[in-house]
């Protein structure tokens, strides 16, 4: 007898004549290519030479080599690890591993990537059915059989809407219309959309979990999992969300794109992580429940009956892509998923390959380096395993989770930008694959600011390869594929959640140019009232020197010319010794280093690729005054946070990416016990294109005045204002 519930590599016979052309159009784009699960790992070596290309500027700074002896701070070449990893690791460690785990020795440097093929049939969506006891099958039936024309469930509202070609054309050509709104916790919001003007969303003062249309197990597990963030201030009827989570989830649950640039690893980072994990898991459980429910309906229908009502899948299975910077972040996400799926202590979920996962993504407490003095935000960002090259597939089926699932059998993919870059590959490479990104419905990019310190090109490369038509069919049953995927309209349904610690033009560009959600976008646009200059504790005159650039593309050359013509001559005199030049861009740093060598200036330099011995030597020369200038890159400061002693004159070649770096660098001057603070100077170069960075340093009011005036601005900070 014919098993109607099993998916076949070929599509079922279509009954509707008008849809045949769509299938043929899609099939015409497919070419047969050998399907390979093994992914070639690229060996990306970093060079300090100026000739390296932009895509080679990876963030390997946190893993720089160095065997030589260093100073008291230089002995630690790996950032400190925080004890916060304990909870996630202990939970995973308490459970015994299954048989597949013991055969694998976890190692970060393996050539062949491990994928779990053992549990393929158990986690197949096509061959499984909804368990009766879960009750989810009934919920799906209730939605489909309801007399109401539109379900109230935001998931069904979003995925079931059928766009017309006119609307798609409008989104491709017309500009977005925007409106403003102010919310109690998030502050100033900008709502934008291309289609008809949407109703401005209002902040919910109170949220009942039962009204959020969460998938059944999440209603009971979320309050317990989120309990750690709740205070006694929360009202009894709103005890499951913090004020920040409530407003963020209110936006997420409408399937709008969201940009939140105020993520802080110290304060709200874990709150936000739990909120987007809840949303992503809710989406996957609903999507899978719909497929399993339709499997049962297809099994029970009469032979020979063809129906087009079961379009519930994409062209490939992965639905959620989560981009995070370090393995520790992936560890915490998986731990959150497990906690959300476990209804009670007695009903533990089955997690495949958990022992291997703990070994590869956890950190060994015994390897913790000696505690050196670092800022709290550094400790929070670089906690646990900070390897930035990883990717892992996660499959979820009812009360089971499968880690290391092959991408085409995964529901969720958790990866770093570098991990994605090495599997996507570049044009012309034989081993490259990005078909698994074709049907991503929720994209989460967390801690986007860190990718500016790693390699932003990897993020752009990923955005260019997401939601494209696949080159191979990968055994999909076309009779189950949604029309939106067949029409290549996936990008108009994809929700993008972007979280960052700062506003930056490059991050804004991704949100504005690569997010096409038909529902619209929401961006938090709060302006800083007081800048980080107020945290400078040393008495120091700050001179902000404005340079005039004709366009944003010419500002790089204009800044260099302005520096060598007008700024550098003032510091060539031997009296202006102990001058540190802070350079945010590595490429500007290389340009300045080459110029200083050409001019035979007395200088030394430190960048993210400098070995420990070189760093120690440069710091010693600068402190003793043997070298007049020190070129110092922002990425080195981001990854190491060493205190540079001996600074008397400070030049910010460009405003720092992180505003608090400004006060940190200025406050390094107090580390010099020379009693010559009266001669300290600080010079900052800026242009009109640095408005966001400038506002974060001096505040919005001063920024407005400085951008209107074309004169240099002198500020004197006494440590009290």
Description:
The chain is an alpha/beta fold. Among the domains are: 154-197 and 215-296 and 318-366 and 390-524, 3-Layer(aba) Sandwich (Rossmann fold); 532-718, Rossmann fold, CATH 3.40.50. It is built from 25 helices and 18 strands. The strands form two sheets. Strands 1-2-11-3-10-9-4-8-6-7-5 form an eleven-stranded mixed beta sheet. The chain has a seven-stranded mixed beta sheet with strand order 14-15-13-16-17-12-18, with helices on both faces. Helix 13 packs across helix 15. It is elongated, with a radius of gyration of 27 Å. Residues 1-23, 31-111 and 132-150 have low confidence and may be disordered.
Question: Care to give the gist of this entry?
Answer:
This protein has 721 residues and is an alpha/beta fold. The protein has 25 helices and 18 strands. Residues 1-23, 31-111 and 132-150 have low confidence and may be disordered.
Layout of helices and strands, plus pairs?
Elements: H1 20-29, H2 86-94, H3 99-102, H4 136-145, H5 154-160, H6 165-173, E1 177-183, E2 187-193, H7 216-225, H8 243-252, E3 257-260, H9 269-300, E4 320-323, H10 327-341, E5 350-352, H11 354-361, H12 376-381, E6 391-397, E7 400-403, E8 412-415, H13 417-424, E9 442-445, H14 448-453, H15 456-464, H16 483-486, H17 490-493, E10 495-499, H18 505-513, E11 521-524, E12 540-546, H19 555-571, E13 579-583, H20 586-598, E14 603-606, H21 612-624, E15 629-633, H22 634-640, E16 649-652, H23 659-667, E17 681-686, H24 691-698, H25 700-708, E18 713-717
Parallel strand pairs: 3-10, 3-11, 4-8, 4-9, 5-7, 9-10, 12-17, 13-15, 13-16, 14-15, 16-17
Antiparallel strand pairs: 1-2, 2-11, 6-7, 6-8, 12-18
Helix pairs in contact: 2-10, 4-9, 7-10, 8-9, 9-10, 10-11, 13-15, 24-25
């Amino acid at each position: 007898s014919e098993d109607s519930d099993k998916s076949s590599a070929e599509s079922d016979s279509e009954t509707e004549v008008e849809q045949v052309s769509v299938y043929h159009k899609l099939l015409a784009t497919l070419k047969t290519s050998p399907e390979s699960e093994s992914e070639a790992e690229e060996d990306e070596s970093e060079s300090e030479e100026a000739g390296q290309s932009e895509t080679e500027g990876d963030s390997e700074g946190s893993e720089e080599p160095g065997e030589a002896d260093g100073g008291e701070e230089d002995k630690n070449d790996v950032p400190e690890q925080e004890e916060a990893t304990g909870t996630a690791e202990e939970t995973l460690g308490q459970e015994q591993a299954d048989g597949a785990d013991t055969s694998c020795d976890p190692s970060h440097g393996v050539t062949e990537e491990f994928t779990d093929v053992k549990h393929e049939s158990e986690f197949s969506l096509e061959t499984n059915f909804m368990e009766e006891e879960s009750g989810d099958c009934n919920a799906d039936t209730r939605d489909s059989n309801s007399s109401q024309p539109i379900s109230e469930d935001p998931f069904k509202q979003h995925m079931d809407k059928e766009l017309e070609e006119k609307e798609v054309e409008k989104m491709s050509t017309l500009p977005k219309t925007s409106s403003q709104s102010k919310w109690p916790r998030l502050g100033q919001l900008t709502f934008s959309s291309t289609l008809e003007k949407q109703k401005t969303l209002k902040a919910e003062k109170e949220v009942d979990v039962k009204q959020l249309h969460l998938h059944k197990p999440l209603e009971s597990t979320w309050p317990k999992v989120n309990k750690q963030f709740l205070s006694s201030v929360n009202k009894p009827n709103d005890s499951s969300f913090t004020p920040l989570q409530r407003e963020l989830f209110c936006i997420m649950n409408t399937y709008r794109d969201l940009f939140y640039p105020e993520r802080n690893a110290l304060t709200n980072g874990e709150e936000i992580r739990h909120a987007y994990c809840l949303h992503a898991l809710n989406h996957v459980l609903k999507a899978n429940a719909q497929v399993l429910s339709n499997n049962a309906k297809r099994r029970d229908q009469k032979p020979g009956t063809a129906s087009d009502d079961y379009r519930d899948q994409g062209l490939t299975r992965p639905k959620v892509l989560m981009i995070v910077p370090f393995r520790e972040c992936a560890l915490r996400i998986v731990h959150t998923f497990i906690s959300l799926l476990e209804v009670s202590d007695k009903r533990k979920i089955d997690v495949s390959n958990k022992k291997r996962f703990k070994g590869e993504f956890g950190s060994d407490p015994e390897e913790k380096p000696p505690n050196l003095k670092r800022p709290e935000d550094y400790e929070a960002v670089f906690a646990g395993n900070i390897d930035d090259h990883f990717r892992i597939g996660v499959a979820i089926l009812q009360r089971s989770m499968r880690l290391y699932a092959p991408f085409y059998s995964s529901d969720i993919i958790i990866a770093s930008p570098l991990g994605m870059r090495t599997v996507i590959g570049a044009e012309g490479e034989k081993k490259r694959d990005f078909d698994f990104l074709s049907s991503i419905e929720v994209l989460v990019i967390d801690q986007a600011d860190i990718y500016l310190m790693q390699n932003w090109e990897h993020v752009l490369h990923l955005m260019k390869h997401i939601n494209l038509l696949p080159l191979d069919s990968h055994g999909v049953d076309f009779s189950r594929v949604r029309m939106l995927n067949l029409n290549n309209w996936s990008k108009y349904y994809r929700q993008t959640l972007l979280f960052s610690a700062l506003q930056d033009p490059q991050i804004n560009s991704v949100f504005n140019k690569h997010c096409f959600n038909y529902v619209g976008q929401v961006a938090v646009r709060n302006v800083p009232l007081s800048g980080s200059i107020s945290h400078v504790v040393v008495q120091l005159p700050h001179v902000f020197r404005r340079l005039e650039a004709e366009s944003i593309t010419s500002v790089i050359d204009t800044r260099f010319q302005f520096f060598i013509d007008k700024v550098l001559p003032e510091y060539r005199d031997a009296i202006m010794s102990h001058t540190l030049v802070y350079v945010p861009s590595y490429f500007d740093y290389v340009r300045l280093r080459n110029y200083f060598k050409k001019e035979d200036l007395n200088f030394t330099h430190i960048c993210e690729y400098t070995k420990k011995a070189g760093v120690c030597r440069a710091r010693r020369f600068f402190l003793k005054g043997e070298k007049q200038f020190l070129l110092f890159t922002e990425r080195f400061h981001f990854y190491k946070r060493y205190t540079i002693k001996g600074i008397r004159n400070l030049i910010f070649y460009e405003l720092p990416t992180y505003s608090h770096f400004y006060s940190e660098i200025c406050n390094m001057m107090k580390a010099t016990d020379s009693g010559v603070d009266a001669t300290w100077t600080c010079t900052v170069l800026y242009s009109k294109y640095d408005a966001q960075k400038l506002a974060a340093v001096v505040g919005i009011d001063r920024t407005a005045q400085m951008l209107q005036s074309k004169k240099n601005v002198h500020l004197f900070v006494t440590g009290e204002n």
